[in-house]
Specification:
Layout lengths: L6 H18 L17 E6 L1 H4 L3 H13 L4 E7 L25 H9 L5 E7 L2 E3 L3 H5 L17 E2 L4 E2 L2 E3 L8 H14 L6 E5 L16 H11 L40 H10 L11 H26 L4 E6 L3 H8 L12 E4 L10 H18 L7 E5 H4 L1 H34 L3 H36 L1 H16 L2 H20 L8 H13 L4 E5 L1 H6 L3 H9 L1
Parallel strand pairs: 1-2, 1-12, 2-3, 3-8, 8-9, 9-10, 11-12
Antiparallel strand pairs: 4-7, 5-6
Helix pairs in contact: 3-4, 6-9, 7-8, 8-9, 9-10, 11-17, 13-14, 13-16, 14-15, 15-16
Bound molecules: zinc ion.
Length: 559
């Protein structure tokens, strides 16, 4: 005869069923490791909108993938490099990407993720806008300027001097981009019920273009000396010389010399910028005014981090603030104004980008550098806030992916040569200029084209070694296109190269499994773990898909 369960036993059964359901439902936010009772390792992933999809089913499938990989925080891009935004904002409607005014990505993702205990952080590229963005069009005066009065859009990148396609906005100017555009956007996101956190990216000055050239806008030219109080605003016409009492001239700094030259306010932008970078605070002393330039920039970024914290916590104290930061806060303070190890008050979770792309050396050396750097990051922040070690999958595969880069580089050279020949032909037609100019150019171009083609073929041979055993058909198609480009006449070459370039992009976008060995990702995660960070954050969902690494991540994060 079966005994009926007592009330107490029934309660226990109920409890077991509930707990079982919770466990089956995925990873609750505050997991604990079974052995130690210590908080479990946190897992996050950076996600671009196309990865999530554009309908409910796709969003659910993406969340399911994250759940299988034990991800607890999805960091979703909502404001990109061109100032474009991915939520149906009324106030910033001009910046909304087409299609996202009717499809509420955040709401769908939040609805799918929350039942699994997965949080959604709204990721913003803070200070960057595109050349044609609505913010820049409405307020060109908000942009950062260099000593020549140009925006970052007038700078070039690399040896080929490619135009830099982004405009960095001045973090300091008030009223300006920070308080009129960025903070109101963040407030709107903080009020969005689907958002669990705000994620800072590009919370800094530009680094890859001319770190010491920004910002010398009118506001900053006035405010850098004011910030450091290099002169008095009251009795501003009175000037004091250094009172030399000590032998070392800089030892007399406290005698109150007027550090700002009397000519400063009337000088040209170029001269004022030159003083701020190369000037001497004590006549005859070392060139040290740039110390105040760097400190001012750090202060502007600090101030923004503080203001976002105040704003977000006022809207909802439960919201988290996370930040993608450079690997070394002491160096990034000097180069990009990002002294992030002093942000414990304003940031809840650090996600430093300790990517291999920021290190020289082999993959094996990277593993050691990743561990050492993560240890130092925890030291710098004094373990004051959770820190998730940021690993970018693509850069782990420098060796495997190099042939793609080399082939693309050769293709670009071929295209440049093509357009320069066209330019020369156009010039000749226009001016009916001396024929030898064109012939000379063609002769050089022919030789350069042959060399670029040789590089292309050599890189392709290297690529074939990895590709052919894994995807023979793809490899064959690619080989045929390379052959076609090689054998094409100069007139046909542009078309042949375009075809090859398109196919190469297809192959890169959908690599066969194993092309990027999954054990490299596992070893990088293990290396970071040896430093005992609070978690791991992966860049990015798109590369996990391209490089077929989701299964490897599921395995690594299951531990
Ligand atoms: Zn400025």
């Amino acid at each position: 005869m079966m005994r009926r369960p007592t009330t107490c036993a029934r309660f226990l059964i109920w409890l077991i069923v509930i707990l079982g359901c919770l466990a089956a439902g995925g990873a609750p936010v505050a997991r604990e490791s079974a052995q130690s009772g210590a908080p479990a390792e946190r897992h996050s992933v950076w996600v671009h909108p196309p990865e999530v999809g554009r309908d409910r089913e796709a969003v659910r499938a993406f969340v399911e993938q994250c759940r299988r990989a034990h991800i607890e925080t999805i960091i979703l891009l909502v404001k990109g490099m061109n100032g474009e935004i991915y939520w149906p904002s009324q106030r910033f409607s001009a910046a909304v990407v087409k299609g996202y005014e009717s499809f509420d990505l955040l709401r769908e993702l939040g609805a799918a993720a929350r039942p699994h205990g997965i949080k959604v952080h709204a990721w913003l590229v803070d200070f960057v806008e595109g050349l044609n963005s609505p913010a820049l069009k409405a307020h060109p005066e908000w942009a950062q300027l260099n000593h020549a009065g140009g925006t970052t859009g007038t700078e070039t990148l690399g040896k080929r001097k490619r135009p830099y396609p982004y405009v960095w906005m001045c973090p300091a100017r008030r009223p300006g981009y920070t308080d009129q555009w960025l903070l109101p956007m963040i407030e709107e996101l903080a009020k969005n019920p689907a958002v669990d956190g705000i994620h800072h990216d590009y919370i800094r000055y530009p680094g890859d273009v001319a770190p010491d050239s920004f910002c010398f806008c009118d506001y900053c030219l006035t405010h850098i000396p004011r910030y450091a109080m290099l002169a008095y605003e009251t009795r501003s016409s009175e000037r004091y010389d250094v009172d030399v009492r000590q032998e070392r001239v800089e030892a007399n700094w406290w005698t109150d010399p007027t550090m700002l030259p009397s000519t400063y306010s009337k000088a040209e932008r170029r001269e004022r910028a030159d003083f701020l970078l190369n000037g001497r605070t004590i006549p005859g002393g070392p060139p040290d005014v740039r110390y105040f330039f760097y400190d001012y920039r750090v202060e502007q970024i600090d101030r923004f981090a503080r203001e976002v914290h105040e704003l977000v916590k006022k809207v909802n104290p439960k919201l988290e603030i996370s930040a993608a930061v450079f690997k070394n806060p002491v160096q990034s303070a000097r180069f990009i104004g990002q002294q992030w190890h002093r942000w414990n008050e304003w940031i809840d979770i650090y996600t430093p980008m300790t990517y291999r792309s920021h290190f020289a050396g082999s993959f094996e050396s990277y593993l050691d550098h990743l561990e050492e750097t993560t240890r130092r990051q925890l030291e710098w922040t004094r373990h004051g806030r959770p820190l998730e070690a940021g690993i970018a999958t693509t850069y782990l595969y420098r060796e495997e992916l190099q042939p793609f880069e080399d082939m693309n580089d050769a293709i670009e050279t071929l295209r440049d040569l093509q357009s320069s020949v066209q330019d020369a032909q156009a010039a000749q037609r226009q001016l009916n200029a001396a024929v030898y100019v064109l012939e000379g150019a063609s002769g050089d171009a022919r030789q350069a084209r042959e060399m670029a083609m040789k590089r292309l073929v050599a890189a392709h041979d290297r690529l074939q070694k990895r590709l052919a055993p894994l995807a023979p058909d793809t490899a064959k198609t690619l080989a045929q296109l390379v052959k076609a480009a090689e054998e094409a006449s100069p007139e046909q070459q542009a078309t042949a190269v375009a075809g090859l370039s398109a196919e190469l992009a297809n192959v890169r976008a959908d690599l066969p499994p194993g092309f990027c060995p999954p054990e490299k990702l596992a070893r990088a995660i293990d290396a970071a773990r040896r430093a005992k960070p609070d978690g791991i954050v992966i860049f990015a969902a798109s590369s996990l898909k391209r490089e077929k690494l989701w299964p490897a991540l599921e395995k690594a994060f299951a531990k």
